[in-house]
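Re: the 752-residue chain
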Amino acid sequence: MIVLKSPTTAVWKPLLRRGHGSGIVRQKTSEWNYKAKQYKLRRMRSLGFLSFSVLATIIVASGFALRTAWAHPKSSSSPVARDWSVYGGSPEYQHYSSLAQINRSNVKQLQVAWSYDTGEQGGLQTSPLMVDGMLYGISPTQKIFAVDAATGKELWKFDSGIKGMQPDRGLAYWADKDDKRILVGVMNFLHALDAKTGKPIPSFGFNGRVDLQENLGREPRFQSISLTSPGIVYKDLIIVGGRNPETLPAPPGDIRAYDVRTGKLRWSFHTIPHPGEFGYNTWPKDAWKTSGAANNWAGMALDRQRGIVYVPTGSAASDFYGADRVGDDLFANCLIALNAETGERIWHFQAVRHDLWDRDFPSAPVLITLKRDGKPVDAVVQTSKQGFLFIFDRATGKPLVPIEYRKYPASVLPGEVASAEQGLPTWPAPYARQNLTEDMLTTRTPEAHQWAAERFKASIHEGQFVPFRVGAETIVFPGFDGAAEWGGPAVDPDTDLIYINSNEMAWTASLFEDKGERGGKAIYLSQCAVCHGENMRGAPPDIPALDGIGNRKSPADIAAAIRGGKGRMPGFPNLYENQLNGLVEFLLTGENKELASSGPPLPAMKYRLTGYRRFLDPDGYPAVAPPWGTLNAIDLNTGEYKWKINFGEYPELAAKGMKNTGSENYGGPIVTAGGLLFIGATNYDKKFRAFDKSTGELLWETTLPFAGNATPITYSVNGRQFIVIAAGGGKDPKSGSGGVYVAFALPQEGKN
């Protein structure tokens, strides 16, 4: 086995441990670029490539296409986009705007132009849309609204009657002359609303909505699916994925296209193949009838000129033990290029074979035109939870960066067959550290370091793709929430730089053997323990502890949350009434009463996860040394890091002098022609920041009412540029949650 030492660790860790800030880190850019080049060359030579020019010649010879009409040409003559009508800013998901009224020279003058308070709690992850002077957003309980994009005045609000308590990260917009529609998910329903009035379109589906539980080949009322990321519009189609449970039973993660006018299902792509379909032999026989997930929860990107939709998928259920799905499990953990008109597969790449680590592709990919051997090649770029970038020819799926396959340890569990090999790109160098070592543990206090060292020595810490074991904690680094996450990256089409905010948190996990428990406890272990843990302690704040839940919630509230889901938890409509009641009683009392027979038993799994656990010290801070979160600018043509800085901090630690540590962050950046990168995302300091996109220098920051765990947008109305971000918080146990949209703009002349 070849063991790679990441230049990320080699260059940045010594500086950060000594407490140097981002300014000194930026001074090391030339050293970083040198080491990144050496890293890239070593990996290429190990694969038999003589030089980068040879590699580029091979790639270009395989065929390239000119920049599509929807991409941003590399010239100042490109049209200025004033609306933000697509999730991610464009079908290519670039998070880029050609607006430049707000720029490096005046960004310090930004002030609040308006705010819109939904009056709800629960947190927000929504990136709104703005079309024709109307801004469309979602409240924490999934009410849909429109406000005047210049003033924040409410224009309409739609309440479906369903109290949605799961993330709802965006909306889609479609128009044909005067017929203008908002297409948005509310739990398991896809709604079509009149964009001008907010009223449902009666001719769409049944009274303006489509039930996504249907047309999955299984009993609809038992299927757990919700639309946490918006669909993407192609011509008269809305193409959607969905969020599924991480345990069985779970519905299949079919990719589906609906007619935007009628709601009629036009095509489905089976991510768990049916007999006769490509990939069927990568699963056990008839797995499509019982296996689940392999779903697209993270969103998609679209090449409108070619008519190709790019779909990243997650792992198959159950996430961490796969004896019932032996094989590579196509199309789980894949980037799939589909014909957007028909749903036919064009090409695919599987990043993790037979995933046992929940290594989903975490966000929509980015489409951009890069340079290879001096010539343009249309590319698709995909971030990953592992901290690596995958780059492919958009038309053919051919890797534009070599992918090196290496052998990894086998599973020691009976019945489990881990894949013998996994592949990772050879460059750019990973944007997160890859293997936790003892010298990377926290030194925040001597006591914290000693605690971390003891836990570290008792754990398994062998890097990527190490199968979990029974009774022994394995360190997962980067953790289950990445490196990269659902907020997605931003790219600048004028410079081919990609900007990625990344987590650097370690998590731990192990498996336990299911002894065949019955009653309410069996339901808990089957459906809940994968997240909340065998002992109900969870991983607060995202995954709350359930011990003592009766002191905080009523039985009715608990039952409603189980049925419909809340926050990160999917709903469980598969449970029969007696199973639900037995589970609620077990949670409240700990009593494991026998259940009367009602419906089929839940799928039996020999081994289950003991729960997600962040590797935190006794005071609740990361048990690894900083950085705990970073912001990275990478040249997609060369793999070199333009800059890298620590991103976020804990206010209470900063007050004691421990500043610029980085922190967990969720929600992505946007980048503009004004030379700026805007991002909220950080969990604890509630900051919204503007950086110089060329250097990483912080130019402006402000404090939001709640953490801005969402991707901002920018647009122009009546000649005035606005930046809007949803602030809802909810990830910091020391702070509350809410639902406020805040708009920033430059001062207007003659007004205070």
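The domain at 515-604 is CATH 1.10.760.10 (Cytochrome Bc1 Complex; Chain D, domain 2).
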